[in-house]
Specification:
The protein has 255 residues and is an alpha/beta fold. It has one domain (34-244): TIM Barrel (Alpha-Beta Barrel), CATH 3.20.20. It has 10 helices and 8 strands. The chain has helices at residues 2-22, 26-29, 35-48, 74-83, 103-109, 128-146, 162-170, 191-200, 215-230, 238-244; strands at 61-69, 88-92, 111-115, 152-153, 174-175, 180-181, 207-211, 234-236. Strands 1, 2, 3, 6, 7 and 8 form a 6-stranded parallel β-sheet that branches. A two-stranded parallel sheet has the order 4-5. The longest helix is centred in the first third of the chain and has 21 residues, at 2-22. The radius of gyration is 20 Å and the shape is globular.
Length: 255
């Protein structure tokens, strides 16, 4: 009798312990695409030959993206993301990597890195050969830091053209824009405004534009992540979003 009671208690305790360790929400338990799944999704996106603005809206994934780094704020952004078990994508300006040389590898470790040109140049105002150098030099510098070339590209100021699009594609780069702008690049933006702008667009499949060089972005990020968790949305990298929730067939955001 005593042994039967002990066995019953153990059986009851095991599921509770496992539930406690795994966390109560689907945010943690959701599938994380394997590397080959992400690689395949990037290849499909590249073959489509069009910029990506959002996912298909069929999962709980949201891609947070940070432009213009690395910067003095990168380490704190990474700390906040790690604490929330969140992933993100960082679009790097090549000539800034020399000042924070360790950050790209750290960023790649919790998401993905992308090419944001060498000098944050408006590529549509440059001759093709200069635009090529802006991208190629950043590809080279990023590879020296993380061991591989980025597969993602975001044009500064969202300034792109058929010529820029073809150039990026020739370098094996998937062009990524966004459908939610947190407007944290406004001079002296307020944390509450950044949070409001980001939260207003939070929905499955969204790609959110943030920047990696403003203190108010750092202040807003924990609040944005808290709202995502409350809505059972999870922060993923762009390759993860493409694998989990490919863009709709008509290449438009579905909301």
């Amino acid at each position: 009798m005593r042994f039967a009671l002990l066995a019953a208690l153990l059986v009851a305790a095991v599921p509770a312990a496992l539930a406690s360790r795994s966390g109560p929400e689907p945010y943690r338990r959701a599938h994380v695409p394997l590397q080959w799944e992400q690689t395949r999704a990037l290849r499909v996106a590249l073959q489509r030959g069009e910029p990506v603005y959002c996912g298909g809206g069929r999962s709980n994934a949201v891609a947070l993206t940070f432009d213009d780094g690395p910067s003095p704020y990168t380490a704190e952004i990474l700390r906040i993301l790690r604490a929330a078990r969140a992933h993100a994508t960082f679009f790097l300006v090549g000539n800034r990597i020399q000042y924070w040389p360790d950050e790209p590898r750290e960023e790649a470790g919790i998401g993905a890195v992308g090419n944001h040109t060498w000098s944050h140049a408006r590529l549509t105002a440059r001759p093709r050969w200069l635009a090529f150098l802006e991208l190629a030099r950043t590809q080279y510098e990023a590879k020296q830091r993380i061991g591989w070339k980025p597969k993602l590209f975001r044009p500064p100021y969202a300034a792109h053209s058929p010529s820029v699009d073809r150039l990026a594609q020739s370098l094996g780069l998937v062009e990524v824009l966004w459908d939610v702008d947190a407007r944290d690049d406004v001079p002296n933006a307020k944390v509450r405004d950044v949070v409001r702008n980001a939260v207003a667009g939070l929905r499955p499949g969204a790609i959110v534009l943030l920047h990696d060089l403003h203190p108010w972005t750092v202040g807003a990020l924990p609040q944005i992540l808290a709202v995502m968790r409350a809505r059972h949305l999870r922060a993923v990298s762009v390759p993860e979003l493409l694998a989990l929730d490919p863009p709709a067939a008509d290449r438009r955001c579905s909301y």
